[in-house]
């Protein structure tokens, strides 16, 4: 043993006395095995550890569960060793050990990237950012945050497709598809991955790219954590030193003008493809603190932004920031406020003013009606964000080889809406989840009736009651299932990892009340 027998016995005593008093023998054995191998390097944390709470923190207060122990690998070899223990109950003869995988912990719902009575594999120490010598790609550790990755390349004149929010982890966003400020010119983040280093359920460490295990390579482009634990991503890089960006805040009585500008932008972005935008509406119960926030950017032209002119022309407005800045300062600071609970859900619909010029107004009215229905919830911040996905985005995906997301043959301009309520009191969790489902069903019924619905559910923004993997289409879903069974024949990542969106549960559609 790496530690004296007394230390091991003390660990078991701590585990038995922890908040998770129903621990199975297998989980005890796995935590002990990991402690014996990695405890001296402080890579294994139990609830009584000084650092346990810090590593179990999440974006929102409704997400943390209490894992029996937290494992902090620093390499693919560490993960391979851990997977062997988890598959075998650390060789104790007991059953296998359930576990969770955490990159940045962004998904704001319990169990998405954490677990109760199990082991959390926290990838935050696998966080290096390395620029290739030829400057054509960047290697990102799965546990890095996008803010750290951008900071690492500050001053190099190099950019890459990555997340828009600083505190989000590289791994989860990239495996879910990933929307970037550079998506109008380079596609989704997943489209730009050149190579995945991944640890399979067997413990084998391998690479997946266009020429080696190309089926696994394709499945990882939107297939989430169903195939193994990805440790590093090699992502296409390109020259791009500075960008033009602005945060503009409008009064709520500018709603009609803003909605018309969103529709116009979505249908005309192709003529100014370096520009992108997203619009957030925010309402709060018991407060007049309502606003419209426009996050606009141009990643190439620092002076001329024709697609953004409708937003720059709206008055009155407050300009929070507007100008040229380096990539490292590009990601906006939209992290969830401390002490808030949170949920995300999303829906996609067709934007075509010729077919229906009022669809945005209709969706907007439904969203406000739902807020008013649940406005009795104290301290409720009802945020919803419109993000255009013009048809030409899929051209970049196709050029780069495609992905699993089911958008490669899109013939229409689309708009994604993300509903993102925040609230403080856990007593209202059930009502907020109900509100999100009521909203989702109403928007789907409305857009279906107009013949302008779209099945795509963006995994990075999906709620636990939604079915993003199923929304990719039957053919893509079957392909991912075949790949899963090929590289994970015992279906470890379907049965031992309860969190996230599972291929084994996909295809049934989103749950409705």
From TrEMBL:
Molecular function GO labels: FAD binding; oxidoreductase activity
Signal peptide stretch: 1-21
Domain FAD-binding PCMH-type: residue ranges: 63-240
Keywords: FAD, Flavoprotein, Oxidoreductase, Signal
Oxidoreductase is among the record's keywords: yes
Classification via InterPro entries: FAD-bd_PCMH, FAD-bd_PCMH-like_sf, FAD-bd_PCMH_sub2, FAD-linked_Oxidoreductase, Oxid_FAD_bind_N
Similarity section: Belongs to the oxygen-dependent FAD-linked oxidoreductase family.
Protein's name in the database: Related to 6-hydroxy-d-nicotine oxidase
UniProt source species: Ramularia collo-cygni
């Amino acid at each position: 043993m790496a530690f004296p027998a007394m230390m091991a016995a003390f660990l078991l005593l701590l585990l038995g006395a922890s908040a998770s008093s129903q621990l199975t023998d297998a989980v005890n054995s796995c935590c002990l095995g990991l402690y014996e191998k990695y405890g001296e390097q402080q890579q294994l944390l139990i609830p009584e550890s000084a650092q346990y709470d810090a590593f179990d923190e999440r974006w929102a207060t409704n997400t943390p569960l209490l894992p029996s122990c937290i494992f902090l690998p620093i390499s693919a070899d560490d993960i391979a060793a851990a997977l062997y223990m988890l598959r075998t109950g650390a060789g104790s003869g007991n059953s296998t050990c359930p576990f969770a995988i955490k990159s940045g912990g962004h998904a704001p719902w319990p169990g998405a990237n954490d677990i109760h009575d199990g082991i959390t594999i926290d990838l935050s120490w696998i966080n290096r950012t390395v620029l290739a010598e030829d400057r054509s790609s960047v290697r990102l550790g799965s546990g890095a945050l996008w803010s750290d990755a951008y900071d690492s390349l500050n001053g190099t004149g190099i950019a890459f497709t990555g997340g828009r929010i600083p505190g989000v982890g590289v791994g989860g966003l990239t495996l879910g598809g990933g929307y970037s400020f550079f998506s109008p010119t380079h596609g989704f983040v997943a489209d730009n991955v050149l190579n995945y280093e991944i640890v399979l359920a067997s413990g084998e460490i391998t690479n997946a790219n266009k020429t080696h295990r190309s089926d696994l390579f394709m499945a990882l482009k939107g297939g989430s954590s169903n195939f193994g634990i990805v440790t590093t991503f090699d992502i296409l890089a390109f020259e791009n030193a500075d960008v033009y960006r602005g945060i503009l805040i409008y009064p709520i009585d500018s709603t009609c003008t803003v909605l018309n500008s969103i529709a116009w932008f979505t249908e005309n972005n192709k003529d100014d493809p370096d520009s992108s935008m997203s619009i957030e509406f925010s309402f709060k119960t018991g407060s007049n603190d309502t606003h419209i926030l426009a996050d606009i950017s141009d990643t190439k032209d620092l002076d001329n932004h024709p697609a953004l002119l409708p937003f720059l022309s709206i008055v009155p407005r407050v300009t929070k920031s507007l100008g040229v800045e380096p990539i490292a300062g590009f990601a906006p600071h939209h992290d969830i406020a401390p002490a808030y609970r949170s949920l995300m859900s999303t829906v996609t619909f067709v934007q075509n003013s010729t077919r229906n010029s009022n669809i945005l107004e209709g969706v907007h009215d439904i969203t406000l009606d739902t807020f008013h229905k649940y406005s009795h919830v104290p301290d409720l911040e009802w945020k919803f964000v419109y993000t255009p996905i013009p048809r030409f985005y899929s051209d970049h995906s196709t050029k780069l080889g495609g992905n699993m997301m089911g958008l490669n043959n899109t013939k229409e301009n689309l708009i994604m809406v993300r509903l993102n309520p925040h609230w403080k009191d856990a007593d209202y969790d059930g009502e907020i989840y109900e509100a999100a489902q009521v909203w989702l069903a109403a928007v789907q019924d409305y857009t279906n009736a107009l013949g302008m619905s779209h099945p795509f559910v963006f995994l990075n923004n999906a709620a636990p009651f939604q079915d993003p993997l199923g929304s990719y289409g039957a053919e893509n879903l079957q392909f991912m299932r075949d790949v899963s069974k090929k590289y994970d024949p015992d279906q470890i990542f379907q049965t031992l990892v309860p969190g996230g969106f599972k291929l084994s549960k996909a295809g049934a559609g989103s749950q409705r009340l």
